[in-house]
Amino acid sequence: MTSIWPAMAREAFRIGYIDAGGVETRFVETGDTDSDEAVVFVHGTGGHLESFTRNYHAHGAHFRTLGLDMIGHGFSGKPDHDYEIAHYVGHLKDFLAAMGVRKAHLHGESLGGWIVAQFAIDHPGLVASLTLNTAGGLNTDPKVMKRVYEVTMNAVANAGPETVRARLEWLMNDPDRVTQDLLEMRLSVYTQPGFVRAMEHILCLQDMDIRMRNVLTEEALADIEAPTLVIWTDHDPTAPEATGQRFVDAIPNAEDLVVMKDCAHWPQWEKADEFNQLHLAFLEKHRVGAVAEAA
């Protein structure tokens, strides 16, 4: 697998910081920066905007495309409190407002899927489409929660090439898909001053009591109005394909479940060309301009 940077070097992009509801927020932007319709990629637990470096330009050729470090994550601000789903949803709403996005095609991976699903429930008028990629929030498996906590906390509390690589390899079906520059990027995130404290706040959702007051339910998912694509994998370490089908069955405007092969928790990285093709095909059907013309 090649470095993350050749994929980012082919087209213009910018990485910057913007105030989103008082949180200094790192973002990446490419594509038509004047559009108020945008594809927005939201990463998972302990992640950062580099999770989608193999996807930004493919999408930017068709849409304004954004990624961000969510509150407490990456190099964005890290307020000293636990981050529950409402905090992430509020931060995402503030980010969209700060960036002038009127309609968002929200893509969420893992925790990001949990966040954008709740966002679509709470703020339907802002969502043009929804993509849930190995999304969290519907399962409450104590073994998985314990594993997520242990491998993530170890990578931060004992940050080094071996522990961070172990955390990244957990995301991949083939450990060789972890590139050296991805490892070094995440190591630089995890060794920031105060990041152990931030990770404790991030991992609060692995506590059963906290998780249970944040979980998604089929009843809540039934309120999602946006057209929805659910992507799962054949080797996801967090939940079986049946969980993806539960999302599909609960969301009224969901398409048939898509299961990507030879992938674990990062199909957008592991099989980027396949992912980009299927995701863009879905997005083109639900472009705001196209919907308006059809009406």
CATH level 4 superfamily: Alpha/Beta hydrolase fold, catalytic domain
Structural domain count: 1
**Which fold does the CATH topology refer to?**
Rossmann fold
In helices, the fraction of residues equals 40-55%
Whole-number mean pLDDT: 95
N-to-C SSE series?
A: HEEEHEHEHEHHHHHHEHEHHH
Distance between the termini: 44 Å
Q: State the secondary-structure class.
A: alpha/beta
CATH class: Alpha Beta
Per the principal axes of the C-alpha atoms, what is the gross shape?
globular
**Fraction of residues in β-strands:** 15-25%
| Tally of DSSP β-strands | 8
The number of helical runs is 14
Order of strands across the widest beta sheet?
A: 1-2-4-3-5-6-7-8
Uncertain stretches of 5 or more adjacent residues: 291-295
Profile the largest sheet.
8 strands, mixed
**Compute the gyration radius: what is it?**
17 Å
Could you explain how this protein is built, in words?
The chain is an alpha/beta fold and 295 residues long. It has one domain (5-294): Alpha/Beta hydrolase fold, catalytic domain (Rossmann fold, 3-Layer(aba) Sandwich). 42% of the residues lie in helices and 17% in strands. The protein is built from 14 helices and eight strands. Strands 1-2-4-3-5-6-7-8 form an eight-stranded mixed sheet, with helices on both faces. Strand 5, helix 4 and strand 6 form a beta-alpha-beta unit. It is globular and about 50 Å long.
